[in-house]
Write a structure and sequence with these properties.
Blueprint lengths: L1 H16 L4 H19 L4 H18 L15
Helix pairs in contact: 1-2, 2-3
Length: about 80
């Protein structure tokens, strides 16, 4: 049971090793972190990414707090 929980972390770590640059590895790790945090908060990762990628430009343009888009602050329908 615990092995199944750790497996995605090991796969993500291996994927970062295949990045061709430091910036690429950092980007992979950041996206992996966002997806796994969404899962940990009971959100569908795809729906969460669609939600934040739609609202993020609006939040930035209007000067709203981006922290409101963190997984523990979001309720998806």
């Amino acid at each position: 049971m615990a092995e199944n929980h750790v497996r995605p972390i090991a796969i993500g770590r291996k994927n970062c090793l295949l990045a061709t640059s430091n910036k690429g590895a950092t980007a992979l790790c950041n996206w992996y972190s966002v997806i796994e945090t969404a899962k940990a908060n009971g959100l569908d990762p795809y729906a969460y990414l669609c939600h934040i990628l739609t609202l993020l430009p609006i939040y930035q343009h209007e000067g709203k707090y981006i922290e409101d888009l963190l997984p523990w602050n979001v309720e998806l329908k």
